[in-house]
Structures are given as C-alpha cells and as structure tokens.
Amino acid sequence: MSVKVYLLKLQSSNWKSVHKAILKGGNDPAIIEVYDILELQPNEILIIPGVGNISSLVSEISVSAPIVKVREHIERNNIKIIGICLGFQFICSKSFEDENAECLNLFNCDVVPIFDPVRPFVGWCKLNTFLSDTFKSSLAELFEEKDFYFTHSYAVKAVEINLGKYEIYSYSLDGSEDNVAAIVSKNYIGYQFHPEKSGQHGIKLLSKSINLLKSNL
Amino acid sequence: MRLIARVDVRNGFHIKTINCEGVEKIREASESIKLFSSGDNEHDEIIFIDTVASLYGFDNWFIRENQEHVYCPIPLSIGGGVSSVDIALQTLERGADKIVLNTAAIENPSLLEKISNLCGRQAVILQIDTKKINGEYMCFTHGARELSNYSVADWLKQAQSLGVGEIHITSIDSEGIDKAFPDDLADLCKTNTPLPLIISGGLRSSEDLCRFRREFEIDSFSFSSIVNRLNFKLVEIREQLLSSGEEVRCP
Question: What are the Cα distances from residue B64, in Å, to B10, B50, B59?
Fold first, then answer.
C-alpha cells in the first residue's frame, strides 16, 4: 500500500528547501496547508519544517486548528510525524522560548535555552548515541557517519529526558550540557539539526527517515 | 571549524576583490553556488554579498536574477541592498537561509530587530567591514566605501540586543591580498561579543585558520582567495586541517 507523504507549508519555515531536499532524495511529498491538517488520513506521514521562533509557528497553526485537536487527530489516526528544528521543538511538551505557545507534546520533554543569556549555536556537529538500549532503527548508521548542520538557540537537554524505548542522539558543546540532536520512535522522528542543509548526507537521511516511517505501518 | 565560501558578486558575476574593490570576474555567481555546495570544493556554508547593491540602491543579485526558489544543500547567506523587512523576506523566500546586513543596519538599527523578530535570530548576520581610522577600528558601509560613525567595539556591543545571530567581520586592508587578518581585530571581536563570529579578509592558508582557532578561539572563517586565487581544492584544505589536529567536517 502506498503511504502518502505531506509537507506542511508554514511561513515560519524554509519549507521550499525541505521540499527540494525530499524530492532529490526520491520522494514526492504533497504540500499541505495548515488549515488542512485535520484532513490527514490514518497512517499518513506529515513533515513539519520550521525556522524562527516558536510563537510564530504555533500561532500560524493554531489559527486554523486548535493544537489540542491536532494532537488528538494525530494520535487517533496513527499519523507519522517528522519534525525539523523548530518543527521538532513544536512536537515536544513546551518551549521556554514562549511558555504560552502550546506545543503538541508528542515527545514528553521541554525545550530550554542552550546558553544563558540566550544566544545561538551555529555549526556542524557529529552526533553521539545517547540512548538506544531497547530500540535501534535502520537510521542508526547514518547518524553515526557524518556531521549535521545546527542553528538554534533552544534545545532539549539530553540528561533531562527519559523517553523509554526511543532512540536518542545528542551532541556536545563547550559550556552546555549535551543537547538532543535526534529522537527516533515508531511514529515520530525529531531532528534538531537541518537535514535539508546538511549536504548529500542530510538528503539521504531525510529519504531514509520517510521510508522508515512508511515501513512502520 | 566552519569553512565558508565567500562570494562577492557584481552584476551577476562572482568577482575577485582587493581591499573590497572588484578587480576581475571569476565566474557567473550561480555557478559558484553549484561549485561550492558539492564535490571537492564543497564548503560548510556559502556567503554571497552583492558588493554594489547598497551603493547603487538596487535589489541584491539574488532577488534580481532568481524568480524561482533556489535550493542549496548547505546553508546559504545572502547580503547586499537588504534595506527593508520586505526585501529580507523576498530574499529568504527565494532560498536564502540567512540575511546579511550592513549599510541598512547602520542607517536604521531597528531593522535588525524587525527582521530578527519576524524571521528568527538565526536568520540575521551582521556584516561589519572595517579598517583603522586614527588608531580605532571603524565600520564602513556601501560596499566598504563610506565611513560610518560606529566603532567596531560599540557596534558589536549593540548587536546582540538588536537580535543579531552571527557576526561576519571583514578586514578591508587585508582583504584579497597577501596580508594576514589583523590579530588586534580578532582580539577586539572576541572581547566585545559572545555571538558566533566569522572572520574574513586575509585568510590565505590552513595555517592561518589553525592559528586563529588556537590563539583566539575563532572557529568560523569565510574566504575566497584560498580556492579562487591560490587554487587549492577545499578537500585539500580539510586534509591539512585534519592533519593539524583540527576538527573539520568531511562531506
């Protein structure tokens, strides 16, 4: 059975770059507007890109669909999600960038500033395997091979999460605890880095991520 | 270490510059995007600066030449003539990941805040072109031609509160020639900002990069001459850096 893949068209994102990276990887996602999120069908895949700040992204989505309804719809219909950078932070519990911005809470972890006072980290990093005792996906080798491109001021701290049977990768910075770089579960994948800006390897990771979710019916 | 391709653009051509003045064409600017985002010359990022857009008051090359979105598989920063929020949004819409501002930011610092609030701090790079005037590093605008009232130290101190995400600083006097980026400027920058810092102008070899990393803890470099004039492939520079014990990405 062919599983449909959708890319969420958000103003608070670089969705066109994500779209072209996915196309180069061999998938052809349909573009979906925010007001159509609740039309997603069972087992379909939604890619949520994101750059900028969490308030803009949440207000853009919540104008069309209450966040609680979006979450219910995703869980009830077994919809698969790939969240990228701010899109990943949106599927976490809440972000300290704006605690009033309601997030999806698909991953039970908070998003906090990397540094105090707040300033961005920008650069390429190798990833460490933080937790994969009970689950190891077909993406594992890709995470371990190459560097990925990060640009963000907020992150999930690796020490603070206990997500059970999830596969978690982190990266280290001077003056900061380890930050979560990627979380992979059966239905949800979150990337703090930008695979669409991580060269050919990032394009390959996006492609394999979509294929992994397609196989997890 | 971040190795960034610096591409100065004039009339659609990537140009060779000396002290920030264009002296000859190298290739079409669009060809440089392809060249520096794959193969042996893949960099970690690309910074394009339209060197005459602010001077002549027109839109930057990226907006003028590209009606459609341009995809670059590594981060792409575009600067030159970004004088309003609308132009910044148009530039991002066509495929830039970050906006580089200099002239308009000095003329109207609140523009930095507006773009940062709308597009995020990560999308805003403050370009500083500088040389010493009466012993003090001063900021220049309009493609490094016009002296502003800002000293580098004062401008750097303001940058973080204005929502800037990164600093890209060019030493005008050492740009494009066989002269090193000045140590006292590297020191001044590290002392006056906690923001991610990219230095440019006077980086001629992997040894230069190693030295600034070791002595000043600067890890982001944008350069042109190493690849375009001295004819090193970036893969060779990466190998030299690796053998010197530096951490670099191997695409």
Answer: 12, 11, 6
The per-residue pLDDT for A58 is 95
Arithmetic mean of pLDDT, A72-87: 97
For chain B, the farthest-separated pair of C-alpha atoms sits apart, in whole angstroms, at 46
- Element (H or E) spanning B151, and its range? strand B146-151
Compute the nearest-CA separation of B33 from chain A (Å): 13
Pair of tokens at residue B179? 């002269």
3-state secondary structure of B13: strand
State whether B44 and A124 contact (CB < 8 Å): yes
B219 is catalytic: no
Q: Which residues of A touch B234 (CB under 8 A)?
A: none
Residues A143, A133: contact at Cβ < 8 Å?
no
What ipTM was estimated for this complex?
0.92
Q: pLDDT tens digits for A175-196?
A: 777 899 999 988 999 999 999 9
Average pLDDT for chain A:
91
In this prediction, residue A163 carries a pLDDT of 61
pLDDT value at residue B54: 80
A152 Cβ under 8 Å from any chain B Cβ = yes
Catalytic residue among B8, B44, B50, B219: B8
Across the range B15-37, mean pLDDT stands at 92
CA–CA distance, B251 with B238 (Å, rounded to integer): 10
Q: Could you tell me if A39 and A74 are in contact, meaning their C-beta atoms sit under 8 angstroms apart? A: no
- The C-alpha atoms of residue A77 and residue A79 are separated, in whole angstroms, by 5
When CB atoms are compared, the residue of A16, A149, A201 closest to B75 is A149
Q: Of B242, B207, B96, B209, give the one whose Cα is nearest residue A147.
A: B242
Q: Closest chain B residue to A13 measured between Cα atoms?
A: B119
Residue among B2, B74, B219 minimizing CB distance to A197: B74
Chain B: closest CA distance from residue A42 (Å): 31
Does residue B8 have an active-site annotation? Answer: yes
- DSSP, res B39: G
Judged against a pLDDT cut of 70, whether residue A217 lies above it is answered with no
Do residue B120 and residue A53 have CB atoms under 8 angstroms apart?
yes
Question: What is the per-residue pLDDT across B188-214, written as a single tens digit (0 to 9) for each?
Answer: 999 999 999 999 999 999 999 999 999
Cβ neighbourhood burial of A76 (10 Å; 0-12, 13-18, 19+): exposed
Q: B10 CB contacts (<8 Å, ≥6 apart)?
A: B22, B50, B51, B52
pLDDT grade for A160, boundaries at 50, 70 and 90: low
Q: Which of A50, A44, A56 is nearest to A8 (CA)?
A: A50
* pLDDT of res. A140: 87
Q: Which of B44, B50, B129, B219 is catalytic?
A: B129
